[in-house]
Design brief:
about 30% helix; single chain; alpha+beta; about 25% strand; seven-stranded mixed sheet; about 190 residues; binds coenzyme A
Length: about 190
């Protein structure tokens, strides 16, 4: 059972980062014109291997998976996150990133709540994530897991994917350097 959590558009809670204002941010679906901003957000985290790097072509191909957090004042994109469906009952939250300047203002929780709402709409019952942010995801009901949570038939089917994130989900040797130190977490919706 997922933890109680605010609606993605609910920005009424007090925020921890006094310099930031999540109230001035809206969460909306991404458009192709957001790719450059999403790339800039990724640049803040890929060097420390916190997020998987993605070429612009991959971001364009995946744009329909993305939601962004847009500042109302100047329409700057200051957060992003994607939901990638892997199987009938299973999706992954990936590329969830908030601009360092706005961290701790509640924007990450709103983006994640939106991705989980999207997962429910799609009919997915389990959501996976690979992360260093265990406490943050635990607040939405994610729990740490050990094994890859699919049976051998589905595992074999997923091996046919060319997606790097799916390779990380499967724990393939070739991507293990990318995932060092990350926790595998799963939420039952
Ligand atoms: C993880 C990440 C997306 C969180 O974004 P954020 O905007 O800083 O997150 P929030 O402000 O919503 O929450 C951060 C903390 O502030 C608190 N907080 C601040 N304002 C809040 C509010 N209005 N409502 C609820 N919680 C709030 C939360 O309790 C939360 O505490 P927690 O870390 O114990 O859960 C961000 O740190 C990030 O971009 N990290 C790097 C990339 C990454 O690791 N992504 C995850 C794997 S895909």
């Amino acid at each position: 059972m997922a933890a109680e959590h605010p609606n993605p558009q609910d920005d009424s809670l007090p925020h921890r980062n006094p310099g930031a204002n999540a109230k001035a941010v809206t969460i909306r679906r991404a458009r192709t014109g957001d790719v450059a901003a999403v790339r800039r957000l990724l640049d803040q985290y890929v060097h420390e291997r916190i997020l998987l790097d993605k070429a612009p072509v991959t971001l364009y191909e995946d744009i329909q998976e993305f939601w962004v957090a847009e500042r109302v004042e100047d329409r700057a994109v200051l957060g992003c996150g994607a939901l990638h469906v892997m199987w009938e009952d299973l999706a992954e939250v990936r590329t969830l990133a908030v601009d360092r300047e706005l961290k701790g203002a509640g924007v990450g929780h709103r983006l994640l709540a939106q991705l989980l709402e999207t997962a429910r709409e799609l009919g997915v019952s389990r959501v996976f994530c690979l992360t260093f942010e265990v406490g943050f995801f635990a607040q939405h009901g994610f729990v740490e897991i050990g094994e890859t949570p699919v049976d051998t038939d589905v595992y074999s089917e997923l091996l046919r994917s060319y997606d790097e994130g799916v390779a990380e989900f499967l724990g393939l040797e070739r991507v293990k350097p990318n995932t060092l130190g990350n926790s595998r977490m799963l939420l039952h919706l």
